[in-house]
Amino acid sequence: MSDQIEWKEEYEIGVAHIDFQHRKLVNLLERLRQSLGQGLDNPVVGTTLKSIVDYTQSHFADEEKLMRQIGFVGIEEHTLLHRQLLSEVASILQKLKKGGEFTPEDLLQFLVRWVTDHVIKEDTKIGVAFREMKAAQPT
Question: What pTM did the predictor assign?
């Protein structure tokens, strides 16, 4: 099984409640990694996958609400990235159920790569916009 998945400071975007949610997603991915190490028949695998999907949907809704509140310029593109991820994960989960070419380990690697890349490349833009909006407000 792959190396431990842990939170890194570089994932922080500077918006406390979003950073908290990102931390929780990283923790859920680590729980999935650990449960996969105990075998596919481990009931925690399915439960954890469902938790990741459910929490990701909730997180995306919160992130999109924040983007609307701060007038984030790239909201349409960012929201599209969210929809694409959810669609890809649904497709992968269907392949897993049918015994297709995707393994749970492939799904884990895909999710870890997507979450870390997305947070570093895309969500940091929200953090910048949030700080700019806060700085522009009269004190």
Answer: 0.89
